[in-house]
Amino acid sequence: MYNIALFGPPGAGKGTQSLKLIEKYNLAYISTGNILREEIAEGSELGMKARSVIETGGLVSDEIIVQIIEKKIKTNTDVNGFLFDGFPRTVVQAYILEGLLLKLNTSLNCMVSLEVKQDILMDRMLERAKKEKRIDDTIDVIKNRLNEYKNKTIPVADFYNEKGIKYSVDGVGDVDDIFDRITNVVEQSLTKTWLNVVLFGPPGSGKGTQGNLLAEQYDLVYISTGSLLRKEIEKGSEMGLAAKEYMEKGDIVPDEFAIKLIEKQIQTNPNAKGFFFKGFPRTIVQAYILDGLLRKYNSSVSCVFNLDVPTLESIKRLSARSKTEKSRYYDMNMDVIIRRLESFQIRTKLVLDYYGKQKNIYNVNGMGTKDEVSKLLTQKLKIAFKNAR
Predict the structure, then answer these.
(1) What is the dotted CATH code of the domain comprising 197-388?
(2) Does the structural domain 2-191 have CATH classification 3.40.50.720?
(3) What is the pTM of this model?
(4) Which of 98, 100, 235, 344 has the most crowded Cβ, counting Cβ within 10 A?
(5) Residue-by-residue DSSP string for 64-91
(6) E strand segments, the chain
């Protein structure tokens, strides 16, 4: 999902450019003024609350606005994302939008600010007032609106600038030329959007083989917590020695180990296009941890894949692997194999349910040759990446 906030002072041309953006990128248009009027016209409960406030001369509260925006987002499921026009207007609303999008498992990808000098804005708005016969748009009123924008909304631009997703665009010139400038920065921000894949499957499902292939194919950084922990064990590090005790029993290592290893991989790959996670998260708590880690870097899980392999087949594969040079020390003990499979069934299946509710999970039949399974994963990954962007 791709979300844009379009900023600019009154008279900057946001309405015109919004229409072109939503058509090009298949976005749902969210203008607080428009959706408030829609809710009032429908006579909805939220609309009636807003109407009672407006009729008494008050300002509709952030609480009502955010409920209306959430309703709009949830009822537009066939779009690639959302274009926010006129929201957020304040830093408080910027934090509200962050929390709302986090709740909906998405985020704001870019904030585009149309830059137009005040004298040009004055001329535009006075001309518009004449054409539309708006007697309320006097010079004094227009100046007050521009000052209101400067005092309240410019700090919002600073908020997004600090997050590294604010883009300034010259808002003067031909409508199509301005649109070209906007789409250039939108495309630029797209290249900065990480694509993060989580690959699930029981032990012996082929996650390692398929994960490495797909990560290389899509130029993603492959993160296998199991592989990273084994390296720590080989080095004889303090973490490795502690992790070995857990892994030999088929238990999940403490979460702080995985956090340190994953964050190190993210920090040492600042130019990554995204990350391919294999073996993490394995519990609901770890799912929250991964969401928090990625949110720290203004990103999120793009899609989740689950390799579906029957338990008996997993046992056969792990037993066979124990007789090869690729064997793991926890492949040698059938009790440990069964314990690992039980852990997957009991704890990790809950994580699949968690991601399933967010509608970004893809189930793939893991039975077949390496090439057959790889082909299925590639086909679905193309669809998932298209939906993610």
Answers:
(1) 3.40.50.300
(2) no
(3) 0.60
(4) 344
(5) HHHHHHHHHHHT--SSSEEEEES---SH
(6) 2-7, 27-31, 81-85, 110-115, 166-170, 197-200, 221-224, 275-278, 303-308, 361-365
